[in-house]
TrEMBL record:
Residues 29-49 are annotated as: Disordered. This is PBP domain-containing protein. Residues 40-158, 181-294 form the PBP domain. Gene3D superfamilies: Periplasmic binding protein-like II (3.40.190.10). It comes from Slackia piriformis YIT 12062. Residues 1-21 form the signal peptide. It comes from the Bacteria.
Amino acid sequence: MKAKKLLALALSCVCALGAFALAGCSGGSNASSDGSGSSTGGAISVISREDGSGTRGAFTELFEIEDADGNDATTTSAVVTNSTSVMMTTVAGDSSSIGYISLGSLNDTVKAVEIDGVAPSADGVKDGSYKVARPFNVVAGQSLSDVAQDFLNFIMSSDGQAVVSEENYVSVADDAQPYTASGKSGKVVVAGSSSVTPVMEKLAEAYQALNPDVNIEVQQSDSSTGVQSAIDGTCDLGMASRELKDSETSQGVKPVVIAMDGIAVVVNNDSAVNGLTSEQVKGIFTGEITDWSNVA
């Protein structure tokens, strides 16, 4: 009788542990760890950016997520978000998700994974060890107002580049000279990329502290809209988080690289995944890999 009770107790413990394991797989996280940070199962929820996003354009190019004709081959099952902040919120709220954001916008609401064994960092972008990187451009039309040119001068000065570095982006002007307040007045409209917007807002704040009679208005949209706005003359400076296309520069606008930025591949904080190869990222975003169990 006593042996039967012990057997029943043992079986109940096994069942409880089995139920706990199943709950863990289907509850807060669709991926579990084997101790090495790899995933052992669960459908992958792919989160991407909208068409026109400079981050999407740079991401698909860097990871070769393209078809034979060079067109974007992101899986049609991807959830599309329209800004960096919405991307982060979406990934933070979906335990099985994977997405990508500007490295400078990374915070503790999501987890950045290593790519080919290298963690994303500003130092890694600068020394070339982290290869998932792209330029931040401002786009100027054929003529700039004196005050818009002065703001651009500030951005490329040692003072402006210090702001770039403080915001976790990579300075592109190590030999830049200090900026002297101009005493100018007026308004400058800067429009475009949601990835460039955060550092542009910090640059505008620092510039206006030195030139209180200038109003810098930063309008967030996407890179393609920012470039087109500069072409159309509806803004003084466009923002683009990618290289400009020949079809854009042929219309008279000129890009100025103000910083370099990494693109961080991010997963939910509860994910067991800590690193991926470039080929795995490509497979996930093209839809060839659809389950975390296929990521070793």
